[in-house]
Amino acid sequence: MATIPQGGGGSGGSGWVKIADVSVPGGTASDKVFQDAPNNTVLQSAKVTSLSIQLTVRASYPIVDVGGVLTTLPESADQGHYEGPVSVTLAGSEAVEVTVQTANNLPGAIDACDFTVDLPPELLTLAFSGAYPGAQTELKEDDNFQIDGTTDKDIDRVRVLDYEACQLEEFAVAVGTSFSVSGTIADRGNVAVARPARVQVRDATTGAWSATRDTNLGGGTTDGVDVVNCNNLHPTVSILTPIGYPAGQQALKASESATVGVSAANYDSIVASSPNSELNITGGPPSYTATRIAGTYNVTVANFRLVATRNANGAETIRQYVIQIAAVAMQLTVALPAARLRSGGNDGTSIQSHTITVNSDQEIQSFTMDPEAGGGVWSGSWGGSATSRTRTLQVHDDDTKGVYTWQNVSAVNLALIPTTVIGTNPTYTLGGFVARSLTFAAFATQTAMDVEVVDFTKLQAGIFTATSQPALKQAIGTPPSVTNGYTINATGSKPTQVIWLDTAAAGSNSGGTAQITNVQEVV
What we know:
By secondary structure, the chain is mostly beta strands.
């Protein structure tokens, strides 16, 4: 133990010196004992995990001597002493003395500290063991291979480094001097190369990690012991498109077959299957035949599967595809923008355009449909998506109001199965008309509206400009005079006479400019 004279300086000689602390680069220092607890400024002993340590030394003069090696300490911030690090290499567990050099470069005070060296564990042996998975002779990424080792002292953890054969992994192991872990193989490329593993272990008591060791230390080349063969080469498989469906088709029906082209390399075997049992698959690269044996409609769920295997490393490549099936007729429905399609085009209004949407429960390969004669006309061409078609129907005031049936329905699905009927909304109704303003001639009580009224209850109007008052609808046949009142002569015919029942207001319309605004039949 170090002997500390009164006043805290090192023993003997002039001046003073203290070993204040110790650290271990890349290791640990523990079990420290200080002479002056609780101040802890003079270290007496410690346990270290390396022969290379670093002391923190304080002294009254700048130069200190450790085993004949002189070190100059920097002046402390308060300029009352000198303090700094001193590197020391131990021969083993021993006492280290530090001597301060006086102003005359003569040996002065001495301090000493006892160090017990507790070195990290050492890997005594390290090797691969066991066997390759199955019948493999090479390893691919994420395969496993056992690694065994022994140490000179108890350990509790094993670290396999990200190096050559293996990925980085750390394992907790039973405390002892031997271990077996399963290293996970890394992807190091697509060429077979014999590669070692690199491992280090942790001291069960101090937590210090050992130096690393490779399984091929010394240059060993034994397969499965010193090194393992790593090769991440996988089969390459591509399903070629387009698929060879029957002429004009994009799907199968009945017992039809499709030809599937395949490009493949770096494989020993390829197995074809239908995961949902919809197909019978025969053939092999470069061409398979897929024959429908089940399924009514499928354009989304993979039913053609290839698994290519490379035997040397057990690598598999899987490719899946949908061989489309449309073995039943599609069901069509029409979505209408309103219960009745209103008209326009006369009395200063515009012809009305209505978007008609036809929806299908399958993808549509071709489609056509027409309005019934007199029930509007198409504008533009068919648009839409894979399962719908849209087009604009124009309805004119001259078109007769009523119920119409869609005509010339012709649709085929991806397998050319036809559909000629509309399941929902096979009919549509023309009814109502858009708002318009009507002018009364001088002193007139009637004006013609060039459109028919079908449902009198849905007839509306805005105001009479002559009175700036709301136009009040009266029952058909109501006689004048009704202030701000109006009615019509009849429903179901064109033109329709709009009757101004306010005779006093009509009699004042000498200029023929009075109007009834926003006359319309709503949906």
